[in-house]
Design brief:
Blueprint lengths: L21 H7 L15 H6 L11
Length: about 60
C-alpha cells in the first residue's frame, strides 16, 4: 500500500515527497509556495540560497 501523497499537494517536498509544514513553502518555496527541496533532501545552506524555491545553487 502506497501512503505517499502526490507531490503537487501543499506541504509536500517536490523532490523527495517528505511532509512539510505549510509555512515552509511560504518562507522557502517558489512563488506558488511549493517546496522543491527540503531539509530531508538538501542542506539548510542550499535551502537558504534558494534551492527550495527551485533555483539552481552551487553545491557546498
Amino acid at each position: 500500500m502506497d501512503l505517499r501523497v502526490e507531490p503537487d499537494e501543499s506541504g509536500v517536498c517536490l523532490e523527495c515527497g517528505s511532509h512539510l509544514p505549510p509555512r515552509f513553502g511560504r518562507v522557502h518555496g517558489d512563488d506558488d509556495d511549493r517546496a522543491h527541496r527540503c531539509p530531508e533532501c538538501d542542506s539548510w545552506v542550499r535551502i537558504c540560497e534558494g534551492s527550495a524555491a527551485g533555483k539552481d545553487v552551487e553545491s557546498l
